[in-house]
Request: fold
Amino acid sequence: MSTERIELTVRLQVPERGKIRSTVQPSGRLLHETQLSEIGTQYRHGDLTGAEAILDALEGGLEATLEQQFTGDKLTAVGELLFQLLFGAEACWMPLFQDLFRLPSQTPPLPFRAAVRLRIWTDEPGLTGLPWRATSYKAHVLIGSGWSLEVTSTPTPVEVVSLPSPPRILLIAPRGGGAPLGTEQHLQALTSELTSLFAEYGDPEYLQVVETENQIQRAFRGMKPSILYYYGHGEIQSDGRTNLLLDAAEGRSGESHPCSMDELRNLMGDHRPMAVYLNGCMTGASGWHSAGHQLSADVPVVVAYCTTAFTVHAQDAAIAWLRAIVGEGQDPVVVLNRPRPTESTSDFQWITRTLHTSYRLWKSTRTFSREREVGTRLDRDDQRSIVLSRISELVKEPARRVDALMSCAAPGNLVDRLYRQLVDHVSLHGLHAAKLRLFRPRFPDPRVAVSELPGALERALRNELKSHGRESLRAALAASAPHRDGSGAMPLLWLDWGTFGTAENGPISLDELQGWLEFCSDMLAAACSEDIRIVAHLAVESDDYDDWFEDMNQLRDDFDRVTCSCRVIPPPSVVSVADIRRYLLSPECTFYCEPTQVDHIAKLLHQSTKGKYEPVVKLLQGATSWRSLESSLSKKKPRNREARS
Reply:
């Protein structure tokens, strides 16, 4: 099967009652026009057959009915029915796939021969809420072959959506009426996951939890979220409207207030998020009243439920989706259509989410807070280039699995931030080679005997990866790695084990460093599968950094292996005037600096700090404007002494 994703848009219309018409867009090529009563006659629910029977079973929402109608042979019948709605009989679609897949005439153009991004362009109320993800051909579920299926209401989607990273996220989590949903536990798990991805999610500027209409409205005016996530109850009213059940106004505890999709859109005001995920029952049902149909004209991606959302599955699925698009920058369509390792297609719940989109290309654009900009982009060119070169080699060498990196520096060099600089540089400039995910396992504390250290390090790593006891370390690493897509980039786990000699970790002994290297070169390399790579990093801050540098290089020679390469990153030098000048002129600089000011400010900063890294960062960090910084440093500038006669 080819890894290249082919794009295809199919328009579904009901030109007259009882008929369905399918055309390829934008050419208008007719695939089929068929009586709906002739499609899916073998699939029944009550007195209904075909697509109507599917919708009736979904909108009933009973677990026993869903279990009966959407598993086993019944699910196969649903998948075949959906395929026939889209493509008609074999004679209709075979010429299309022959052309689309560019196959020789003698090769059968079976649908699973290539990965296809299929946009289903329709606004027919009886079609928008169908479980298109279940589409199959001869019991072969198409998403298992890399297909993705999404509904769109527009023939002209937005060309590119650029999600800032980290994106601002608004969580709507009512605590009011209805059956308990484990809301507090879910919010705790979700917040923990997000803060492990970005420290910014500890700040209300990036992550807010709201419960009422008034709070939603204020949040959209203030934080302007990029992602809206709802976790709560949903319902369909007698008039067909789909409602979210928010908390009533402040002071009316325990009461619920219905909010329709139209009302939700009004609460957003002039701002629209890039993605909306409504984790509530029936939010994607009821045709024109569904979240997808109501919101997708303004919101590039809308995820909802076409039936009952069952708590445990709904919670896990949402966290996995957010982790992938927020932490790994993945395309939300690809993520939603990819079967999760813990998701069984023998269960019905995997088909219950709907997906409406209005974009072609999804990008994750990295942005940084002021602290991160100064702390990650200033100086350290030698260290960054060394690491990028190492990773380029690591992903290319078939036998090499792990790079163990050691670094050391004198106090005042903010070596505890070095891992952020290195990860930042790889993320920005190494994406063609590797897809990176960062973890920060804690070195065993209290410390253990050196003979017990490798085992203690494994336990610490398992804890960071949230691995259960019966799972092998190899399986835990593979499950935690970024998903490998068609880009060819190698999934890369970066394990930062901390900086020693600081208040956070205290000192480390040479024997402990040796035990860490033993763990990396033996246990970690043996547990790393061939389709991922690992970088393990550890830093030491010490006045005796020259001695540490020498000792690290000696240990490197002792533990270098075919499967694990060890490298010592040289201590950083002082910050030069050229380093400061380059930072002031870069797009990542905190404020725009006029080119005419750059040389003067760079020289003043260097004179004031003598090029010491931490003081330079502190002055850049605290600057409210370049003019005020220039004025402040000019007053401190030493005057030239007059020559004495």
Q: What stands out?
A: Residues 225 and 416 are 31 Å apart (CA to CA). DSSP finds 21 helices and 25 strands in the chain. The first strand starts at residue 2 and ends at 13.
